[in-house]
Specification:
Radius of gyration: 19 Å
Largest sheet: 3 strands, antiparallel
Shape: elongated
Strand order of the largest sheet: 1-2-3
CATH class of the largest domain: Alpha Beta
Distance between the termini: 33 Å
Mean pLDDT: 86
CATH architecture of the largest domain: 2-Layer Sandwich
Strand content: 15-25%
Number of strands: 3
Number of helices: 5
Low-confidence stretches: none
Number of domains: 2
């Protein structure tokens, strides 16, 4: 998935109908190898830290897991919580997702994010201190 976030699909040469996640991963691996060969270990280290590790941490993790917190809260209160994808837009390498959170079938929040997970977190965060 990181390869999909970093690499532009239009720049990957291929003979298939759709670029798979594995192809993005293979291209990212090849890019890292090329940086190492051309620039050395220091520049490779810099690239991996800046573009992969930092980017991954910023987009995939949060100090608080609002979704899990909301699910546990709903379980305690005997309510059913579901997350549904409402819409997606943008090109493959910069896709955005609009997710909704439903409690007992009623939509309580909707938010956009650059991943489904981040949009779900934003939905749950908006309900963090609200009445369900």
């Amino acid at each position: 998935m990181i390869g999909k976030q970093i690499l532009d699909k239009a720049l990957i040469r291929h003979n298939v109908n759709e670029v798979s996640d594995n192809m993005f991963g293979n291209c990212l691996e090849a890019l890292i190898g090329a940086i190492f060969i051309e620039e050395g270990l220091s520049k490779t280290n810099e690239f991996v830290k800046d573009k992969i590790i930092t980017n991954s941490l910023n987009t995939n993790f949060s100090d608080v897991d609002f979704k899990s917190k909301l699910i546990l809260r709903c379980q305690r209160e005997g309510k059913k919580v579901t997350f549904k994808k409402i819409q997606e837009s943008g090109p493959g390498h910069k896709k955005k997702y609009k997710m909704g959170v439903y409690i007992n079938g009623d939509k309580k929040s909707e938010n956009w994010g650059f991943s489904i997970k981040s949009a779900e977190q934003l939905c749950a965060k908006s309900l963090d201190n609200n009445e369900l």
